[in-house]
Amino acid sequence: MPPTALPAENKINQTIPGRLNRHLVEDNMTSALYGSPAPYQLGYPTHSVTVGYLGWIFGFMGIHRFYFGRPITGIVWALTGGVFLIGWIIDLFLIPGMQREAEQRYVSGPIDYSVVWILHVLLGVFGVHRFYMGKWITGILFFFSGGLFLLGWLYDLLTLNDQVSELNRLGAS
Hints:
The chain has helices spanning 20-34, 49-57, 63-67, 71-84, 86-105, 113-123, 128-132, 136-149, 151-170; strands at 41-42, 107-108. It is mainly alpha-helical. The chain folds into two domains: 7-38, no CATH class; 49-170, no CATH class. The protein has a two-stranded antiparallel sheet with strand order 1-2. It starts with 19 loop residues before the first helix and ends with a helix. Mean pLDDT is 82; it is low at 1-37.
């Protein structure tokens, strides 16, 4: 027999952008009522501060900003050398806050954001990150076309966090 009240620590009232809110509410209610764990969680570790700082070393190219889900400022950093290195130095202190925001914005799950990003940056033109995410067909296409002639690699640079979040939400393995 399910309890009549939900636990106080339930994250139902957490503000979440877009369509994920309804799913999180349903999963947390199911978890609270029937004791089954939710298949994904928001607000749990998704992005590593350490990986963020490693990306910051090359921050004048905007890698750390792409990693934390800020593609527009990542493009600005890439085109301006981290806004002439001044913004790059300031980002040294902003990375922990970017990491906290990414944890609230993206869904944790079986696919690790840090692994995907490292694979994307180092071996993305060969599609290794896509194989890791279970996207075998596009992984093979990337492998034989140099990341679809770098255009697919650039697309992933802008959308990789959202792709991983969606796969984690769906419980992809």
